[in-house]
From TrEMBL:
Protein name: tRNA(Ile)-lysidine synthase
Its EC number(s): 6.3.4.19
Key word Cytoplasm present: yes
Positions of the tRNA(Ile)-lysidine/2-thiocytidine synthase N-terminal domain: 26-201
Keywords per UniProt: ATP-binding, Cytoplasm, Ligase, Nucleotide-binding, tRNA processing
Gene that this polypeptide is encoded by: tilS
Cited HAMAP family: tRNA_Ile_lys_synt
Function field: Ligates lysine onto the cytidine present at position 34 of the AUA codon-specific tRNA(Ile) that contains the anticodon CAU, in an ATP-dependent manner. Cytidine is converted to lysidine, thus changing the amino acid specificity of the tRNA from methionine to isoleucine.
């Protein structure tokens, strides 16, 4: 049941780039082929240092039995396993995948914290990354959105790692098949009502575009996003200052993308909700023209220096 030595070495190298070799790692294992491959590879690469958890969302009749099948597999290979059960006041009828994802991460983060794990690893791979890039291109996402799935990020104080982003879906299926393990088949993954399913079907239609190359583009965009964030942070420290109850910022002679990031930072400092893309674009156009506009709870004024002040309370 142990994967081949070459596959284990490859995975160990990918994981070593993210996590200290003696750190204890939690694995999110749904029972599908991708997460089962993650389980088998991690158990071989880090024996005695991994634990697994399966979230039973309770949204399908088979979910409890599927979670138990993962528990049985983990027992057979010596990996501690927990079943985490989602509880719903009312089962969702719309936005099911998004709500299930939020519930899943909340449960996994609490589990990792309780177990004293250094991080959680998920089984996102190169094909997932390519699908995400296509989906976000279709929504006219900016650089941050096109950066796709990050190899590492933090949520609620817990590190989330994706050590399989350089692996293809077929490679992971081969790991599971060679181990003789039967994965869970979730019919939702074939439902064209879901945007990701449509992206997956598009990419499966031929050799172009190549998912691995799309995933590489997302990685380059992630590097660009990191660079822009670094520059924007330095510019905010250099060009922004408090002005009464609000802020003043020298946004002159800056590219639009950096102006956008500085303005978003003002909303963060003001404790306001970040505005949506089109609203933010309209505000920037007004400010660049030296005009005044309202966005969220802030009154914005253009000119040589942009000003952001709280919107005055309405008179009653």
């Amino acid at each position: 049941m142990t994967p081949g030595a070459e596959e284990v070495r490859r995975f160990a190298d990918d994981l070593d780039a993210l996590l200290a070799p003696d750190a204890r790692l939690g694995l999110a294992v749904s029972g599908g082929p991708d997460s089962l491959a993650l389980l088998l590879l991690a158990a071989a690469a880090r024996p005695g240092l991994v634990e697994a958890a399966t979230v039973d969302h309770g949204l399908r009749a088979e979910s409890a039995a599927e979670a138990q099948s993962v528990a049985d597999l983990c027992r057979s290979i010596g990996v501690p396993h927990s079943i985490l059960t989602a509880h719903w006041d009312e089962k969702p009828a719309t936005a099911i995948q998004a709500l299930a994802r939020d519930a899943r991460y909340s449960l996994l983060i609490d589990w990792a914290r309780d177990r004293g794990l250094a991080a959680i690893a998920t089984a996102h791979h190169a094909d997932d990354q390519a699908e995400t890039l296509l989906m976000r291109l279709a929504r006219a996402a900016g650089v941050g959105g096109l950066a796709g799935i990050r190899a590492r990020r933090e949520q609620s104080g817990i590190a989330l790692f994706r050590p399989l982003l350089d692996w293809r879906r077929d490679e992971l299926r081969a790991v599971v098949e060679s181990a003789g393990v039967q994965p869970v088949d979730d019919p939702a993954n074939r439902d064209p009502a879901h945007e990701r399913t449509r992206a997956r079907q598009f990419l499966a239609g031929g050799e172009w575009p190549n998912p691995r190359q799309l995933a590489a583009s997302a990685r380059h965009l992630a590097d660009a996003e990191d660079a822009l964030a670094f520059v924007a942070e330095a510019l905010f420290e250099e060009r922004a200052s408090r002005a009464g109850d609000g802020w003043s910022i020298d946004a002159s002679r800056l590219p639009v993308e950096l102006q956008r990031r500085l303005l978003l930072r003002l909303f963060f400092e003001a404790g306001d909700v970040a505005p949506r893309g089109p609203d933010l674009d309209r505000a920037i156009a007004s400010l660049r023209a030296g005009k005044r506009c309202t966005l969220g709870r802030l009154m914005l004024t253009g000119g040589e220096r942009w000003r952001a002040e709280p919107v005055p309370p309405r008179r009653t």
